[in-house]
Structure formats: structure tokens, C-alpha cells
Amino acid sequence: MAAARWLSAIAVGVLGASVMARYRASDPIRLKRGFDRAGILRGRHRTDVIEAVGRPRRVSAAPFDSTLLTWSAGRRGRSYEVALMFDVGGLCVGVAHEVGPSAKLKDR
After folding, report:
1. pLDDT single digits (tens) 29-54
2. Main-chain phi, psi angles of 82, to 5 degrees
3. How far apart are CA 18 and CA 103, in angstroms?
4. Where on the phi/psi map is residue 44: left (φ > 0), alpha (ψ -120 to 50), or beta?
5. In angstroms, rounded to a whole number, what is the distance separating the alpha carbons of residues 29 and 102?
6. Edge to edge, what strands does the sheet with 78-86 contain?
7. Could you tell me how far CA 100 lies from the centroid of its own chain?
8. Distance separating alpha carbons of residues 91 and 37, to the nearest angstrom
9. Which CA distances in Å does 67 have to 22, 62, 63, 74, 85?
10. Which has more pLDDT, 76 or 84?
11. Within a 13 Å sphere around the CA of 21, how many CA atoms are in the beta-carbon half?
């Protein structure tokens, strides 16, 4: 009986953490701020970028063995999306596109 309560407490904790992570990932302003805090992106390794802003929503193959990582969030009619191109070595080449809140990452 005690084991069943213990397991249900763990399940509630895991589900709660999952819901909070999903909430954070769906907030476009929070995602944009994460990219702003990350600073210069060009030349950084993809693991550094992921550590700074979180896991991307999509990972796509691109020409010349490069990879396109896309982060997106949308809530209450607002949305933000940014895609970064990474070379074969995993270094950020630059911003492929950015849609949403007005500040630009293109210069980084």
C-alpha cells in the first residue's frame, strides 16, 4: 500500500515537471529572451546553443551535410520561431530565419 502511494507521488512529480517544461517551451517571449541571453550564436557548437536555449522542436537535414535546428513557441496569438544552421562539425553558421518578436538575431 505504501509503495503504491510512493509510486503515485513520483508520477505526479514527473507529470508536473513535464507540464511546466511544456509551458516554458510554449511561451514565445521566454524563448526569445533565451536567445537574447545566449548572445553571439555564430561559431558556437550546437550543444552549447541547446544548453543555453533548450531543445529544438525540429532537427532537419540541410545541404552540404549541415543541419537546421528550429525552435518555436506560440501562445495566445503570439508566436516566435528561429532556425539556426549548423555545419558538419556542429558549429553554428548563422540564423536561417526568424519570425516573431521584432529584435533580430541575424547580426549574431
Report:
1. 899 999 999 999 999 999 999 999 99
2. -140, 140
3. 29
4. beta
5. 11
6. 58-62, 66-75, 78-86, 92-99
7. 15
8. 19
9. 24, 5, 8, 23, 6
10. 84
11. 11
Query: What is the model's pTM?
Result: 0.70
Burial of 17 (0-12, 13-18, 19+ CB in 10 A): exposed
Dihedral sign from CA coordinates of 99, 42, 59, 25: negative
Beta-carbon-side half-sphere exposure of residue 37 (alpha carbons within 13 Å): 12
pLDDT for res 19:
36
- In whole angstroms, give the CA distance from residue 10 to residue 15: 9
Residues across the chain: 108
